[in-house]
TrEMBL record, chain A:
Membrane topology summary: Multi-pass membrane protein
UniProt subcellular location: Cell membrane
CC terms in the record's Gene Ontology section: ATP-binding cassette (ABC) transporter complex
Domain ABC transmembrane type-1 residues, every copy: 20-217
Protein name, per record: Cysteine ABC transporter permease [Lactobacillus sp.]
Organism: Lactiplantibacillus mudanjiangensis
UniProt xrefs under NCBIfam families: HEQRo_perm_3TM
Automatic annotation (TrEMBL), chain B:
Protein name per the record: Arginine ABC transporter ATP-binding protein ArtP [Lactobacillus sp.]
GO CC terms in record: plasma membrane
Classification via SMART domains: AAA
Lineage: Bacteria, Bacillati, Bacillota, Bacilli, Lactobacillales
Source organism: Lactiplantibacillus mudanjiangensis
UniProt entry tagged with the keyword Transport: yes
Amino acid sequence: MDSIWHIIVTATPQIALAGLKYTIPIALISFALGLILAVLTALVKLSPRHGWFSILKAIAYFYVWLFRSTPLLVQLFIVYFGLPYLKIRGLFPNGIQMDPWAAGIMTFSLNTGAYCAETIRASILSIPQGQWEAAASIGMNKTQVLKRIILPQAARVSLPPLSNSFIGLVKDTSLAASITIIEMFEVSQQIAAQNYQPLVMYSLVAALYAILCSLLSWLQGYLEKRTSSYIRPAN
Amino acid sequence: MIKFEHVNKTFADHPALVDITTEFKAHETTVIVGPSGSGKSTLLRSLNLLERPENGQYHFNDQIIDFAQPLSSKTILNLRRKTGMVFQDYNLFPHLTVVKNVMEGPVQVLKQSPADAKATAMTLLDKVGLADKADAYPSQLSGGQQQRVAIARSLAMNPEYILLDEPTSALDPELEAGVLRVLLELAQEKDSMIIVTHNMEFARAVADKILFVEAGQILFDGTPAEFFKQPTKRIADFLAAMTFTTISDKAN
């Protein structure tokens, strides 16, 4: 039997490579897309209820409700294994087929977008009404007020909870193993199946996730410090 | 000249403005006084449409706005550009430096070049005595300094009227003086100002005209001389109450 040290030394590069090829890119791309979706959803949810905005609002509420009320693993299964059976004549006669990458990124984006939408909505609401009034009274239109005054301040407020969501997403990418993506957890499972050392392998992959997330926590601290420089007096 | 005619505004169930008719002349300083909750801030905020009265007419120079009709956002923005607003709690943009706060309107709204806007901003900051704080953030300034920046920010838009909503109510007396000096200077330069204040000494010093508002109604509309020298019973009571507050504040 291999020594534990030997297992760690040989398995770590393989798992790390899977992290670089799948875990990190999937998390980054999904989070970027999720954030765009989240900002749009938050703005729609905060918009006044009139005209075609009522329809958009209904869609936004339904979307957030749907993705927060069902398990991520089930969502992945529906998108990857289920949608191929959704045959729509004219549009998708052979069902909606996606490769694992596309299915994974789509599901992770939609899922994290639903959670982040609520974070962003709350941080926009946390900016005092006086900021809207001050910006409006120098003649700014709503888009200018949002872009120049509200969103930059809301971004600072939402940084800690958004970092939470991102760290959560990095760990949730391990679920992509179930839709045949060879990410970090899947690699550790495959190695464990060969060397019959599940405790060592799963502890090792846990440690690697922990290292990755610790780096992200540090990055969060750094960003918080940089974006908060205007809050407290210098010196 | 701007003018309100028969303007009404109701909040939930209580009337905030009741059949308000008055005018504000250009190059004059109008001071609005009255007890708390009397509707004086609502009156001021209605002048730049931060509040929307339900009906009545608003004359701004030759433009006539009927409050009973829906207003286009173009009308609203255009009117706000012509009326600068200074708030009780300053409402500076905390994420922008002092000079950027002053430049924001001219660059984003008036589409001035950043260089031009900066030159104007520095002149205005100099005028309010804060040129040396141009690169500081609002959180690094005292309340009085922040309010002077807010005045510079509203002046940067070159408004036809400057509206000030209790500009010194949040300030300690020694900080208040610096702000009042700036406003006195503007009054002497014949800027058009409309000021809501609780400071009667300041009102007396700066006003060309005084409005006394209570329960959403204008109970007095005239010169400071009339207001302070021949007050009605109600105004005399109000002034006595204000004096008592001032004395008790000083005693503390």
